[in-house]
Model the fold of this input.
Amino acid sequence: MSALLKKERMDTNNPVVRLCMEGMEAEAKGRFGDARKLFEQAWSACQDDYDACQAAHFLARHQDSPRAALEWNQEALNRANSVGDDRVQSFYSSLYLNLGHSYETLGDWVEARRHYQMAADRLDDVPEGPYKDMTRNGIARGIKRTESAEEEPEGA
Done:
């Protein structure tokens, strides 16, 4: 389960959380069209930036183009940055990991590598467990795939 919907923090009375959980269940059953609709409903039900961060995170996974996925991943990060409290601290590693993957998919290995490194820098904020292990492995794989990416010289 995503760190964004950890059971110990989950407010099951929140319609966004419920819809995202239903979307994840649909994904697990291979019903990706249903999952996307549920995440879109979650987005429509958002009441604040915390809700929007969660819904955008899941919507990013169901976009028709890499550019649209990048935009939703950026929206999730922007909303996390706007929350203004520590409820989102454990989200950042995953948010940066997803942004890194989006940039990598678009062929921007320098930005991908930068975001994978930011994800690694925030990994200590993720509680120990299978989700942290999965995130750590995703970061390591992303860094390895982009290890040849070098920063462009200044002024280039």
About this structure: Confidence is low (pLDDT under 50) at residues 152-156. The helical segments are 15-28, 32-45, 49-59, 66-83, 92-105, 109-121, 130-145.
